[in-house]
Amino acid sequence: MEHEEHLKLLQATAESNQEAFAQLYEATSAQMYAVSLKMLKRKEWAEEAVQEAYVKIWHNASEYQTGKGTVLTWMVSIVRYRALDMLRYHKVRGESELFEGDGDSLFNPDGLAEQVPEKLAECIDELDSEQRQAIHLAYFNGLSHGEVGLHLQSPLGTIKSWIRRGLQSLQRCLSI
């Protein structure tokens, strides 16, 4: 039911309906912010990424395609890409404290339920631990495959296989 409601609001947003956009924001902003904050680790950066994502959603609502996932998945991908851009920008500028520390805090499966819809969380729980951790580091923490390999002390090819197979498993699980 949630997807259908989001779809109606997004379609109305595509027609420049500000009230529908406000309702869509109200229904999804907490999840969008959780993903952004998890990746960026700084409140002000997370807020900026979410704001920019919603501006993009407003301007590109008509580009959503139902066959490529739920509205929320599409929206989360927008905020995720914006957060990744911000991480790269700050990393290039030498603000690398986001990547310092022991690294254990990067993978926190307990916080996963706050970031993703319930069905996705259930599907993620069914993955092998290596696949789950690699996907979490890449998609929720914004690490590149190479950085995931360094963190997990595994070869790049292995990391790519874990992520690819894990995403295939998630797709099958979510299709049921």
TrEMBL record:
Alphabetic keyword roster: Sigma factor, Transcription, Transcription regulation
- Keyword match Metal-binding: no
The RNA polymerase sigma-70 region domain extends over 24-91
Which SUPFAM superfamilies does the record associate with it? Sigma2 domain of RNA polymerase sigma factors, Sigma3 and sigma4 domains of RNA polymerase sigma factors
Q: Name the InterPro entries for this protein.
A: RNA_pol_sigma-70-like (IPR039425), RNA_pol_sigma-70_dom (IPR014284), RNA_pol_sigma70_r2 (IPR007627), RNA_pol_sigma70_r4_t2 (IPR013249), RNA_pol_sigma_r2 (IPR013325), RNA_pol_sigma_r3/r4-like (IPR013324), WH-like_DNA-bd_sf (IPR036388)
Q: Could you identify this protein by its name?
A: Sigma-70 family RNA polymerase sigma factor
Q: Which parts of the sequence belong to the RNA polymerase sigma factor 70 region 4 type domain?
A: 119-170
Q: What is the organism field in this record?
A: Catenovulum sediminis
> Does the entry feature the keyword ATP-binding, yes or no?
no
Which superkingdom?
Bacteria
Which family, according to the similarity comment?
Answer: Belongs to the sigma-70 factor family. ECF subfamily.
